[in-house]
Specification:
alpha+beta; three-stranded antiparallel beta sheet; two-stranded antiparallel ribbon; 4 helices; about 55% helix; elongated
Amino acid sequence: MDVVAGKWKSLILWELHHYGTRRFAELRRGLPGVSEKMLIQHLREMEEDGLVHREVYREVPPKVEYSLTEHGVSLNAALTSLGEWGTERMRRISAEKVVVTDEGTKGR
């Protein structure tokens, strides 16, 4: 669980899985609300854990790209059922919050 601990790590995995190799700014745009500091921290941790590959191109201006490693792809696959569980939970909670009254109107 330490490998995916943190609000943004699973979202980073999802972003890289669905969109492939991304530059830092592309990742940041794809994750509204994440601070630059937090994204850098999570990417470094994920690189250390072998989930993310960081490719630095020595050019001006410097170009850095992030992609999932084979280990990151396999973790993302393992998290798929957890994502499905979360989607079903959101659907269930939404359904429980909507109550039909005698007049046939919906209320909360």
